[in-house]
Amino acid sequence: MSVGTARHRELGLTDAEFDLIVEKLGREPNDVELAMFSLLWSEHCAYKHSRKLLRRLPTEGERVVMGPGENAGAVDVGNGYAVAFKVESHNHPSAVEPFQGAATGVGGILRDVFALGARPIAILDSLRFGELDSVRSRHLLDGAVRGIGHYGNSIGVPTVGGEIYFEAPYEHNCLVNAMCVGLAKTEDMVRAAAAGVGNAVVLMGASTGRDGIGGASVLASAELGEGDEAKRPTVQIGDPFEQSKVLECCLELLGKGLLVSLQDLGAAGLTSSAGEMASAGGVGIDLDVARVPLREADMEPFEIMVSESQERMLAVVEPAKVAEVLAVCDKWQTGSAEIGVVTDSGQIRILRDGELVGEMPVEALVDGCPLYDLEPAAPEGWIYGNRRTLVEDVSAEDTLLALLASPSVASKRWAFEQYDCLVGSRTVRRPEGGDAAVLRIPEAGSAIAVSIDGNGRRVACDPYAGTVEAVLECAQNLACVGAEPLGLTNCLNFGNPEKPAPAWQLDRAVSGLAGACEALGVPVVGGNVSLYNEGPEGPIYPTPVVGMVGELPDPAATCGSAFVREGDAIGLLGPFEPTLAGSELAKLRGELAAGLAQPDVAAVAAACETVRAAVRAGRLSSAHDVSDGGLACALAESAIGAGLGARVDLQPLRERGCSPEEALFGEGSGGFLLSGDRDALEALGATYLGEVAGTTLEIAAGDRSFTVGLDALESAWRSLGERF
Amino acid sequence: MRWGVLQFPGSCDERDALHACSLLGQARLVWHEERDLAGIDAIVVPGGFSYGDYLRAGAIARFSPAMEAVAEFAAAGGPVLGICNGFQVLCEAGLLPGALLLNESRRFTCRQLDLVPDPGVDGPKSEAEVLNSAHRPTLSIPAKHGEGRYWAPDEVLDALEANGQVAYRYARGQNPNGSARDIAGVRNEAGNVVGLMPHPEHAVDPLSGSTDGLKVFEAVAAAGAPA
User: Fold this and answer.
1) From the CA atom positions of chain B, what is the Rg in Å?
2) Cα A290 to Cα A208, A311, A515, distances in angstroms
3) Which of A29, A35, A630, B18 could form a disulfide with A302 if both were Cys (CB 3.0 to 4.6 A apart)?
4) Which domains does chain B have, with CATH numbers?
């Protein structure tokens, strides 16, 4: 039985976990050790409720250079270069303090990528908030967008894409997921494993303060609720200038071959980076906290070990190279200190001026946390609310305008114009320029495309099918710009895994992710799990966010989503069987219910291949996947982007059994809206719908036929910015 | 033509500017602690957030050793182009008139824009020729900044217009930041120092949507007498 006080519970450890720590140490932990265990045994660091599930994911592939377990995953892009990428959440900090929460979310994912030796070349964000008519949601959105811009713009990495959804279940617990993509010479990349007994451990970058203490355990691994204001001090403060110096400094050090290994300091600060480096290398590490440069002189050893001060990196350096490393840090005007040494003890030993203040076996600290099985149980039907916002008996034309103005569907220009999408001179397709961002990689003589997707509402309807759809949407977006998927990263944002319904959602979603990736042949090279995303009203929509990187041989042979030429034929390709289940329209009508059709992954994959080949061969004028709001919204988006109208007849969909409403506004995977030469479209097997013409959108759909002007469509679609 | 592109800690677009310059000649980075500009024919002060710009954009960079050298280089008639943060630095250094304030929207804005070049009433002839050689009347160039609202007292603005010192204006209706009189860029009295908020280095390749930015570099090169 535990003889510990309630202290371990305050730090988020269960009594059983505390007893296990006592057993592994052979004694009770002191304050320093308890603080360190509580963080590394938190859900955020130990993945104790998700690790077993994640073993289902396929992680192998010909092009994989680094897989899960490293700071980020990486895939080979040829000519000796690799692209590293990862997505990570910063949800709870952003819910408490959106500007700094989002800014440091970007900062953290950037460090993960340059810790590998890759220069960050792109950022994407996936954001979720409550409905936009809530003051809180507007405040969170505004703060998060400013924070992302502040960090990304200042550090000179372009934000090239992303997505934002607004749904009531995110009202209290918003989601801020940031993805970074980096480019490295494969031979210059480093792993995070400490090696070489006697090598020095060097801390670089910002000094260490009291910010972010307990962030991983108190904030990230518990539900949000009353009193969150008091958690504001657990949110870190970002300094992009410091990080830009640390970034350049690290890349110079790695380019000169001066580092044995490198790791960023993120959640749980020095505790987790030192612990993980030691664990990965099978070694021990001695750290002297008295040598850590501090912002406040009177910090306790436990505070120094768990501080989440930003813009810090930990490196292992051969003794003979330490002086040169410190000199490069000086050149970049960034801090550096030799704070420890690699040992063969298998222990993490914390010293203060040589006096031992904590000693723990690395294995117990990093890998000793018990892994839990979930106890999933499917909930009865739809467990989230329904709220009708669209009046009854509304015309098809007004329905389309309402959908386009719905914040989740509306243009996100207001947000993405606050981000620099150009710095670095790689951006070939900017936001809204195509279904995926396209970045040229002259080093490899090619280009990559990147997309991030995940519609939580559809996952809530069916966690398996909804997650498969998220993967397919990414693959479809890549196909639209002519890219072939190389690898996938993901962030699993879910509710409390100790409750049966969120546990079931997580279990089904991971299976869906695994199934879709297996079928597409896309390896999962990394990811992140964010659990306990709940507010007083219950869990968020289960939200697996999928980030995918693809390759295209020629950055000039790509395709936009907007129509290009008057007179072009418009066609629909792919196994698209739209229904209103889980759709944006069902939401606006307050008719959401459990259940989605299961997508035919193989058929979607085949359609992706057809579109990809046609784009690369220059046979299409435009390509756009049919997504939120259905075919009518996709048509409107392609038309608005070009300032060109269209005249189409949806009879072919009606012949497949769709009602007029399903044809117009139904959703589902597998639909590609293409424009180009009619013969070329029909040669691809696309169904002819009509042509690009005029300045109105004219849609024949039985008794729901209508014509609407482009200006009306555009003003509805561009209405998001008016709310600020 | 040998170009030098300054690099401060916190610079962001220096590699992009270096690439643009390399399309027109030789180019190298000039570290902020360097004072020796020997062998350099034209200077670019690039975009970014020099020294973090936490105080006021460009307020610290103007004191760097490299900027002291740039001031001498400019005084000797050498061509200098300041882009975005570089424009802010040149204004802070007193090499260009006016100041750049927070955007009217209080938000960072990134957008492709049309610029109207203004060769000036009796501006340097060579520059006028370069600019007028373009068949299109405007240049398509992106702007991206949070502190780009050009401001100067009315009498200074009047004088700038009278002297032909307005180098670029935003096309009608496209002013992204509330700049006075739609001014996007200005030149000094001698015409060899030019600053603008939009980023010509991000418009030098057809794949990025425009090559109009090269004309801005060419105009600056033509405007300055060899140092």
Assistant:
1) 16
2) 12, 20, 50
3) A35
4) 2-223 (3.40.50.880)
Per the listing, tokens 């309402």 go with A402
Cβ atoms < 10 Å from Cβ of A406 = 25
State both tokens at A585. Answer: 């329209």
Report yes or no: B177 and B197 within 8 Å, Cβ to Cβ: yes
What are the C-alpha distances in Å from B215 to residues A73, B27, B136, B220? 41, 17, 12, 9
Structure-block tokens of residue A608: 């992706």
Query: Model confidence over A129-149: pLDDT tens digits?
Result: 999 999 999 999 999 999 999
Query: Could you tell me the residue ranges of all domains in chain A?
Result: 8-41+191-369
Say if the Cβ atoms of B202 and A425 lie within 8 Å.
Answer: yes
B24, B221 in Cβ contact below 8 A?
A: yes
Q: Which residue of B has its CA nearest to A554?
A: B207
**CA dihedral in degrees (B18, B20, B25, B28; nearest 10)?**
0
Residues 6+ apart with CB under 8 A from A86: A71, A72, A73, A109, A112, A113, A179, A180, A489, A526, A527, A528
Nearest 5°: the CA angle B80, B182, B126 is 40
Q: What tokens does A599 get? A: 């997508």
Q: Note the ipTM here.
A: 0.93
B30 — phi, psi (to 5°)?
A: -120, 110
Does the CB of B195 have a partner CB in chain A at under 8 Å?
no
Positions of B annotated as catalytic residues are 84, 199, 201
Q: What is the 3-state secondary structure (H, E, C) of A186-210?
A: HHHCCCCCCCCCCCEEEEEECCECC
Q: What are phi and psi of B156, to 5 degrees?
A: -70, -45
Q: Given an 8 Å threshold on Cβ–Cβ distance, is A417 in contact with B109?
A: yes
Q: Are A272 and A362 in contact (CB under 8 A)?
A: no
How near does any CA of chain B get to the CA of A36, in Å? 33
Mean pLDDT to the nearest integer, B44-57: 94
The C-alpha atoms of residue A207 and residue A270 are separated, in whole angstroms, by: 12
Residue of B nearest to A427 (CA): B208
Residue A126: how many other CB atoms lie within 10 Å: 25
Q: Residue A254 carries which side chain, given as an amino acid letter?
A: L
Most B CBs within 10 Å: which of A142, A332, A412, A420, as the mutation test of the B interface?
Answer: A420
Residue of A nearest to B176 (CA): A417
CB contact under 8 A, A418 and B199: no
| Token duo for residue A308 | 């989440």
Instruction: Using DSSP bridges, classify how beta strands A427-429 and B109-117 pair: parallel, antiparallel or unpaired.
Output: unpaired
pLDDT tens sequence across A444-477: 999 999 999 999 999 999 999 999 999 999 999 9
Question: Which of B51, B54, B144 faces A422 most closely, judged by CB atoms?
Answer: B144
CATH number, domain A8-41+191-369: 3.90.650.10
